[in-house]
Amino acid sequence: MTKIRTGRKKYYDIFSHIYDVFIKLHAHNYRDETRRFLVDSAQLEGKRQPKVLDICCGTGSVILSFAEQFSDILAIGYDFSLGMLHKAKEKGLSDKVIFIIGDAASLSFADDYFDIVCCSHALYELKGQDRKKALFEMGRVVKPNGKVLIMEHEVPRKKLVKILFYIRMLLMGRKASREFLKKGMIPFREIFTSVTLSHTRSGKSKLYICKK
């Protein structure tokens, strides 16, 4: 792991202690909306023993939502921050989820294994080749008839919130923020043969639905 990634790991280990409070303040009433939208977009109803992998799972809100909705699921939360995974394990239903520490750019799973691979509001944290490798890895481990679901923030409409959004993007590095904001579907279409885009009802988040 690079020195930069090691620094980010330490940052998230510390941030994990207030992460859920921060998300609650930041997302307000839209937190549940985005989770439901992502889980519903997986379209797993009627599928026996679906396998779902949540990349950069943080404190586990998305993968725990999958586990809550599907009783026979194999649910795996994957993150490089041990602090985040510890917080995820403290939550209800965590006994139904396997939490694994690892690097999104190098997944420790076999090819064509998962029905759904998802990553929620986290891909922008990866830079340059790490992001491209992570997308390639997601495509590698998802089944040919499966889906990779990437949820990201939409650019806010309100002026103050929009300014804060761009400040956060710039903190990632000027080049990285431009790449993330301007390329749109291009990085996904470099990896996947089919990419569609949908939005939550509130317009706060967008979902890239990718297939091999």
List the helices and strands and how they pair.
Layout: H1 3-15, H2 19-27, H3 31-42, E1 51-55, H4 61-69, E2 74-79, H5 82-89, E3 97-101, E4 114-120, H6 128-141, E5 142-153, H7 159-171, H8 174-182, H9 186-189, E6 194-199, E7 205-211
Parallel strand pairs: 1-2, 1-4, 2-3, 4-5
Antiparallel strand pairs: 5-7, 6-7
Helix pairs in contact: 3-4, 7-8
Characteristics of this structure?
single chain; 212 residues; alpha/beta; Rossmann fold; seven-stranded mixed β-sheet; 9 helices; 7 strands; 23% strand
What does this structure look like?
The protein is α/β, with parallel strands linked by helices. It has a single domain (3-211), classed as Vaccinia Virus protein VP39 (Rossmann fold). It is built from 9 helices and 7 strands, in the order H-H-H-E-H-E-H-E-E-H-E-H-H-H-E-E. The protein has helices at 3-15, 19-27, 31-42, 61-69, 82-89, 128-141, 159-171, 174-182, 186-189; strands at residues 51-55, 74-79, 97-101, 114-120, 142-153, 194-199, 205-211. A 7-stranded mixed β-sheet has the order 3-2-1-4-5-7-6. The longest helix is centred in the middle third of the chain and has 14 residues, at 128-141. It is globular, with a radius of gyration of 16 Å. The two termini are 28 Å apart.
